Amino acid sequence: MISYRDYRANVREFRLEEPFDFILYRPIAYLIVRLTGSLPLTPNHFSLASLASAVAAGWFLAEGDFFWGGIGIFVFSILDCCDGMLARMKNNGTRLGVFIDMFVDALANIAFYLGLYLGLADTQHPFPIQYLAPLSVVAITVHASAYHYYKKQLLCYIDRNPYGRKEEIEACRLEYEGLKKRKGAWGEKLLFRLFLLFCRLQMNEQTMALFDIDGYPKNNKNMLAFWGLIAGSTHLTILAGSLVAGAVTVYFFYALLLANAWFAAMLAIQHRINENLREVA
User: How far apart are CA 67 and CA 122, in angstroms?
Assistant: First the structure.
């Protein structure tokens, strides 16, 4: 049954979601999931569909068809919200499913920015604008990782479990050790290894600071919404919009100037907020 109450039961509040996901993509994803509810679909089906749309978008971009490349990015962003929405509705989400979603996101970014690089290389510009594409993929990776880190940490403190990140990583590591003893399952092993690598690059769980269990959510809940202004879906929405409008330089201005300046400012503000919290010995 489609209803606003049902929709709100399957999404977090605005401050805990990426802005464009909450405002645009999740409402559409909710309708898609509800309308296809009678079909034997799983979250992984939507993950594969989103990957297919990303590859198609990358192909259009490489061919210089930036309008349909931008449309493909919009479609990917919607489908990328469907897997998590379906998992919450059916309560059948798995750790492997989360890894698949993260892996698909990484492949999608490669498709988008590689396609953009190839497409721009064949266009006439006063300077080699195509080289801004690889710089932008570095920007979206760093910015999205920062958002992911602070979101996961905040959710752990909201759940009153400041050790949640360490416990998640340790559980993943133990599951991976057991998985290595099995023959085959190379795909699962690869996803586990990539996730553990991502965690090591993102933070050192052995020295991660602990903060007051009540003070951290109180002081950081609003901060996450500001981090969301440079989250992955924000990057992709501005990229898609600028491509459809035929003004890709707008995205490069955002990604390489505005978003990086915002990232630096947010790091400074975040550091000051956390320094003022009581650190747990």
Answer: 16
Identify whether the C-beta of residue 107 lies closer than 8 Å to the C-beta of residue 50: no
Neighbour count for residue 67 (Cβ, 10 Å): 12
CA–CA gap between residue 275 and residue 214 (Å, rounded): 15
Token duo for residue 272: 């000051």
Q: What are the tens digits of pLDDT across the range 78-112?
A: 999 998 888 888 776 666 777 788 889 999 999 99
The whole-angstrom separation of Cα 168 and Cα 145 is 17
Third-level CATH fold of 4-162+210-275: Four Helix Bundle (Hemerythrin (Met), subunit A) (1.20.120)
CA distances from 200 to 94, 144, 173, 203 (A): 21, 16, 12, 6
pLDDT tens digits, one per residue of 128-157: 899 999 999 999 999 999 999 899 899 999
| Rounded-to-integer distance, Cα 150 and Cα 136, Å | 21
Nearest to 18 by CA among 124, 90, 86, 105: 105
C-beta of residue 147 within 8 angstroms of C-beta of residue 232: yes
